[in-house]
Design brief:
homodimer; alpha/beta; globular
Chain lengths: ~220, ~220
């Protein structure tokens, strides 16, 4: 059996589990988003800031923090007063649906408006594994350069939102925002793009509004 | 068949191919290094600068540039006057030994002192797939934060050298060099560490000397 055939089988089994998760979330009206980025793009720092603001906006949320090893992210998010479950994948490069299934068995889905999956830092495999989420969010950053969208197109293709973090580093790097956006739009014409700096706070209001809006839409659909 | 069993099978078949590649390289006295990093860490920029200097030092080299999609890296390296073969993996998150086998069939191994694999930008899977290389190089960078070594330990465990690029961004970020090194040493006590900025040139001499030394040792072993 070739690698491709094996992979298709694995992805199919994963999709079946993901579908069941999606059905449970749909009937509860709970939105699940799957945030995917390179290592060190600032996902955890983003959640440390946006999590408390989502709570202030009346949204009950739980974060499922994925990492190969360590509980560093979960510890940081816990310190920020957020509900969090750490998912350690070992040497696996992505979270799969069965790991989400196990994690959300510890969560009262009906009481949560929003479940945020912070995936393993990796632009490739996480984009391939459906988790039962409503949407992926492509979490890019200035330090990784302008051309990532065309090098890792699947994630961009699948995401309704691209956050571009670390815009405070633009002057210090060779980053070209116009070219970055051109690359993103080349892969996905309809994607929303928010320029952001978790460090300075730029773009956080916009990101918050985007998320609150999506939570509302999901709730309305379920009721 | 579970995912773990499948993966072990894939890795075993890969290791067999890698062994054959290693034997060919050993008898030719050609060093092969496998550079692994996050997306946008600066591998291509590093090779654009270090490649010509390796040539000046009398070393004949070929670069195998891995990306899921696009030939952007190969085009850049070609412009820098370097011999380069692009390997596109499609949606696969790593280069495997069979892709290297195909690529080096286009290379006169005996005439090359050094083959550099620029792996797909990903800290997880590429570390698992042996390519027949003499060594991996862990290519970290300041922008991704200080704790990557303990979050992605396999790569660090397998590498005799960690390059820490983008040290010019240290002031602008929350990067903690002492903690980063502590994390690296915690995983691998014997690893060499070079602080580097491809942009300013800092550390490039040191990296060059490290590589030239390893090429010499390999040549001497073969003769």
């Amino acid at each position: 059996m070739g690698y491709k055939v094996i992979k298709e089988k694995v992805l199919r089994a994963n999709a079946d589990t993901a579908k069941l998760i999606k059905e449970r979330l749909d009937s509860a009206g709970t939105l699940m988003i799957n945030i995917i980025s390179s290592p060190g793009a600032g996902k955890t720092a983003f959640l440390e800031k946006i999590g408390p603001r989502l709570k202030e906006a009346g949204i009950t949320l739980t974060i499922l923090a994925g990492d190969c090893f360590t509980c560093r992210d979960a510890e940081r998010l816990d310190k920020a007063g957020l509900e969090v479950i750490q998912i350690n994948t070992g040497n696996a490069c992505h979270i799969d649906a069965s790991l989400i299934d196990k994690a959300i068995s510890q969560v009262d889905i009906e009481k949560n408006d929003l479940i945020i999956v912070e995936n393993v830092g990796n632009l490739v495999c996480p984009a391939e594994f459906e988790l039962g989420e409503d949407m992926k969010i492509a979490f890019l950053n200035v330090a990784e350069g302008s051309d990532k969208a065309i090098k890792y197109p699947l994630l961009i293709k699948e995401s309704p939102l691209a956050l571009i973090n670390k815009v405070d580093l633009t002057q210090m790097s060779d980053f070209d925002m116009a070219f970055c956006k051109e690359c993103i739009r080349q892969v996905n014409r309809n994607i929303d793009i928010i320029e952001m700096s978790v460090k300075t706070g730029q773009g956080l209001d916009e990101a918050l509004n985007w998320l609150v809006d999506k939570v509302k839409i999901k709730k309305e659909k379920a009721s």
